[in-house]
Amino acid sequence: MKLSISIAMAVTLVTGANTNKAQAIEIPLFEDATVTAVIHENDKTLSTAADLLARDLTSLTGQTPKVSSSLRNCVRVCVVVGHYDSALVKSLAKDSGIDLAELKGQWERYKRVAVRSKRDPQITYLLIAGSDTRGTIWGIIDLTRELGVSPWEWWADVTPRKVDRLSVSGDARTSDAPSVQYRGIFLNDEDWGLQPWAAKTYERDVKDIGPKTYARIFELMWRLKANTMWPAMHDSTKPFYQIKGNAEVARDYAIVMGTSHAEPMMRNNVREWDEKKRGDFNFFTNRDSIVKYWAERATEVKDFENLYTIGLRGKHDSAMEGAKTPEEARDALTQVFDIQRGLLAKAQKKPADQVPQVLTLYKEVLDIYMTGLNVPEDVTLVWPENNYGYINQLSTPAEQARKGGAGVYYHISYWGRPHDYLWLATMHPALIREQMDRTNQMKANRIWVLNVGDIKPGEYLTQYFLDMAFDHKVIAETPHEHLKAWAAKQFGADSADEIATIMTEFYDLAWERKPEFMGGGQTEPTRPNLISDYVRTGGAEAWARIDRYSELTRRAEAVAAALPADRQDAFFQLVLYPVRGAASLNERILKLDLAAVYAKANRANVNALSDQAKAAHQRIVTDTATYNAQLNGKWHGMMDQAPRRLPVFDEPIYPHWPLAAKSGCSIDSSDLTFVKGQAVTRTLTVYTPGVPAQWTASGQNGMGFATATGELNAANGFEQRIKIAYDGGATVNGGSIACAGRTLKPVVKLVEAPAGEPAEVNRILSLTATSAKAPAWEVVPELGSRGSALRVKLDMPSTTGKAKIEPLVYRFTTGAKADADIKIVALPVHPLTSANELRLGVRINGGPVQVLDFETFGRSEEWKQNMLTNTAVRTIQVKQLAIGAHTIEVFAMDPGFIFDRIDVRLDGAANLYGAPRK
What we know:
Layout: E1 3-6, E2 9-12, E3 14-15, E4 22-31, E5 34-35, E6 37-40, H1 44-61, E7 67-68, E8 77-83, H2 87-96, E9 110-116, E10 124-130, H3 133-146, E11 163-169, E12 173-174, E13 182-187, H4 194-202, H5 211-223, E14 228-230, H6 246-252, E15 256-257, H7 269-272, H8 275-278, H9 287-300, E16 308-309, H10 326-348, E17 357-360, H11 364-369, E18 380-384, H12 397-400, E19 406-411, H13 429-441, E20 447-453, H14 459-470, H15 479-491, H16 493-512, H17 540-562, H18 568-600, H19 606-633, E21 666-668, E22 673-675, E23 680-687, E24 693-698, E25 703-705, E26 709-712, E27 719-726, E28 736-739, E29 742-744, E30 749-751, E31 764-768, E32 777-781, E33 788-792, E34 808-814, E35 818-826, E36 839-844, E37 850-853, H20 861-869, E38 872-881, E39 884-892, E40 898-906
Parallel strand pairs: 1-11, 3-9, 6-7, 6-8, 8-10, 13-14, 13-20, 14-15, 16-17, 17-18, 18-19, 19-20, 22-30
Antiparallel strand pairs: 2-4, 4-5, 4-11, 9-10, 9-12, 21-23, 23-27, 24-26, 24-28, 25-27, 28-29, 31-40, 32-33, 33-40, 34-39, 35-38, 35-40, 36-37, 36-39
Helix pairs in contact: 1-3, 5-6, 9-10, 13-14, 15-16, 16-17, 16-18, 17-18, 18-19
Domain Gylcosyl hydrolase 115 C-terminal: 770-916
Keywords: Hydrolase
Organism: Asticcacaulis machinosus
């Protein structure tokens, strides 16, 4: 299928004779089988960028553009790219009478305009003039995006589609400067994807991540408008500067190189520090050797564009060796800064404060900083999140005033305790958006770096982060809006909303618990799998999760079946593999756990569940093999279904139990509680103790059975789960089920809630945070267990529980006296800055305000559970809560606090893992 792309509007065509006459014009880049030429400034980097544009034009048109550094090769229409003050652009600007002075001294901006030479009015130039090299590149990238080329055209095989004609607007436009100055990625934990793929598939001559691989990554960064890289640095990978050509290809792509929080002075300590030759990596006992080591690299890289990490940690991602206390480490760091800055000044032959430097306050370095570490004013403070998506703290007003400013280091992939998440890239976009919104509001916009792991399968999250970094206006969009627009550009508008909805559900399920966390174990030290909390109340929560994943998979597979052939590979990589992988791992774990629970109850479905769990694991194996075999093995070695070989990924034993066949038939209708007026679908289970049987449902009222008859046999474990839809009406009756000679009556409950209040369902009343409003709070869209949460506004000062502030007010009604646990569920964020706390005031039925402190410290067990569940909980116990109406008031006390819901658990209520059904 071929398309015609035309992006035109009323513009001013700038000519030497007349610069004011407005004309409606479009610039044809491909028509009548002729494609535009690409003329570039005589510059190696811009020559590469021009080649990228030409390659995209070839992919779109089937015609190969002429690429040249001479305007003489322009016949009718050509794209001209260059620095605003280059000889090429200056001559064109002078001839056509345009003024490019506004670009002088600007960071990464460009002007695009159609111009016509007075010397040859038959030739039209589409000029892209950059304030600097990268500004010019972003102009080229914006043009290719307009033409329909995805940033993922190579890295996720979103193949450009052929067109019959191409044209773009010739209107004059000047881009804004990027919102964040340095925007980049960190290749990390590459041992199970990127490195083996590069070594065995893409760059077999180097057998590692070398210049060919980095060139591909740098081109992707161009397409994502990123400019900064922290290179791969694990033991599995040879250090960046030890592979010939790596540094040069970074220079040729105008990429600013840096190093991670653990690698000061552009050094890879893991592979570069040789203890046999250099001694211990201990500044206190081996200072001269360490300083020489730093000096060598400072001199080696002096001619490249770098962003230097300064400071000192251990040889790898560990605390400083030899320091016995944070204060001793602080004093050593003060000396280290002076030494390192002296080395940089000497190598660069300019004052140290003119050499870009960062200090990443990661792990113990933050503790050292908080003891009063004096960081030079020009050094950028990089605030990390806690490895699980929550920024530890941001700049106080005093820190915001520092010359070097601040930035953030963020993860969508992580190796470490309490558990890795290296497989499927499930960090919720709504959390990323919220954390980057607070980052922006707190003026940490000098540098944003994202730990992307192996790049794949974190493609969307990487683009989302970098889109926000380049243009903060993206933060104003909801995550679903951005995801839908992204999906439309990859797969077309017709499927975009469904894909965005599928992926949102995928992230929502992982928000409750990531696939990698489902085994219940932890790491560092590695601990064995545990029976899931999802079955601790009998199994209803486990089945609900299995059902959600099953429906999600069905919808994703339906979209895949409807997509054209040229999008099948991309959809598998970007959507279907992650969805099916998460669904299959959850099914394997939960069905084996259910089988263990049901075996104790002598349920006949246990062997079928074990077999289904085995089939789920095999689907992961098969899908992973499919991924790596795509496009004749293009991605061979990229996808590993069990990174770091943790117990959650191990294939388990699939037990079988001897079944004693008995006659009879039973139903489980414990899920059939409905709230009047709320149409919803629930599940009824029909089963026998191991004998085949037919069943038929009849006589139901206000409910619709998805199927009214069925057969129980060995293939389905002598059990069927039937979806039942309640229509929201005033009455409901489950009718009867005839099975194995018995007539069974489903127990159906219909409860009613007072207007504006929650209903009591299974002894729980659950109040959603956003069901109330107060001036100190703002809604965070799509975040939390209920699809939105409340955040205390970031400009609200911390206050005391006695301050006069309008509370959130929640009301509920109980029908009987009961003991109650009132669970206040928040998100496990950290205090906004070092000057803030993390408190909430709660008042029940007009009593005293109780101040609840949600702050956690270090890597405590509470913190670990908070990270694994994305919750922070405080519980207020109320003895003999009276019958009737009740009020809970919630007072904002500290900025940035995020409030999710309140669960009022009356005595006898199940201790659920996730959020109760409303």
